[in-house]
């Protein structure tokens, strides 16, 4: 993987201690809980009376080196002697996944600095994400709290995109990103792997791998999810991830079907959901018609299971269901239950 482009500045100061012979075993990332730049945060850390420091501060492609890695920074109490620490200037523990992904360039730089440090000092480049376990590798301040039992800090927070960060780390470490492997390991129903490694999707961002009974798709904004074979034919018909469905955003669910021949399956995607009853074709449900079907109680409501995809009709669209039909036109949506001629309109639930 190409080394990321960034500016590395020396802003070395006096806020450090000797390592006292301790071997470095972990690289840790932190949030600032403020709105500083890499340089303004470095200036604050260089005042020993503030009692805190990190080896690196990072923001907007600028990495400031505050403490040499040969010395201990003042970041994680009694874990200081065996850690290297980096703080994302301007970041907060309350950030959403989307806010973290908006600084993906800095995530890549942090991953590169972590791998560079690990190779320099001879410790593991494994990423130790929640739920934590005690090991050599790359993690965050919360690892020190939860796994090592030191202090009470929880940064970098619950929405940090560990899958994306781990992918960057793996790339710089010369290993295959493991988000797809992790999902496959958690989904033994997939069976034997058929793809050697991962295949890049045409958008250049996602990846997928084929298995005996399904596929695993990964994208940096959604994570990795498995799609069973029962749903893949419809997904392919819709254009895979490049079509209106986009990438999967959740694992599939098995749904009981007392009127069918076995359990049905459903899976959510960025652009709707696919539902398939056992022994029946699969159908896409989305948009305003999908919302109206949801309001009726999904497959357990008065309309039952989807029985078609959406069909163009005059200036709108409609979709067939097991016991009725939903019409959509601009500014209007109507659900009808089959009950002879005419059909019975369904009231929208309060």
What is the rounded distance between the termini?
55 Å
CATH architecture of one domain: 3-Layer(aba) Sandwich
Question: What would you call the structural class?
Answer: alpha+beta
Whole-number mean pLDDT: 91
GO molecular function: N-acetylmuramoyl-L-alanine amidase activity
Pfam families: Amidase_2, LGFP
GO biological process, one term: peptidoglycan catabolic process
Protein name: N-acetylmuramoyl-L-alanine amidase domain-containing protein
Q: TL;DR?
A:
The chain is 21% helix and 27% strand.
Structural commentary:
This protein is an alpha+beta fold. Among the domains are: 169 residues, Lysozyme-like (3-Layer(aba) Sandwich), CATH 3.40.80; 65 residues, no CATH class. The strands form 4 sheets. The protein has a 6-stranded mixed sheet. Strands 15-16-17-18-19 form a 5-stranded antiparallel sheet, with helices on one face. A 4-stranded antiparallel sheet has the order 7-8-9-10. Helix 3 packs across helix 5. 41% of the residues are buried.
